[in-house]
Hints:
This protein is mainly β. Helix content is 0%, strand content 49%. The strands form two sheets. Strands 2, 4, 5, 6, 9, 10 and 11 form a seven-stranded mixed β-sheet that branches.
Amino acid sequence: QVQIQESGGGLVQPGESLKLSCVGSSFVMASFAIGWFRQAPGKGREGVACSSGRDGVTGYADSVKGRFTISRDNANNTAYLQMDSLKPEDTAVYYCATKWSPRCPSNWMFDQWGQGTQVTVSS
C-alpha cells in the first residue's frame, strides 16, 4: 500500500530553521515528482516546493523562494524541506505529496498525500 509520512514539525521562533522529512512506502520516490504544500488556519492549501523525478529540477512559491530548499535522498526514499529564516506567516500544517509523473505539474495537482505535520513559528 502506497503511503507518505511527514515528520519534523514543531514550534520554533522567528528566524530559526526547521527540516521536514517525507518518507515514501511501496513506491520508488525517485521516479516521481514530490511536492511540499502547506495550509494555514482559515486558508487554502498552497504549493510551496516541488522536485521533479529523475532530473531533480526544483520549483518554489515566491513566498518561500530563497528560504526553503527541497531535496531528496533517493537511497532512503525520502524527501526533505529545509526551512530557514522562518516567519510567523509560515505557520501551517505542511504536507508532502507525490504526482504519478516525473514532472512537477504546473497546476500543482498531486495524487497521493501524507497526513501533514504542524509547523508553528512564534516568539
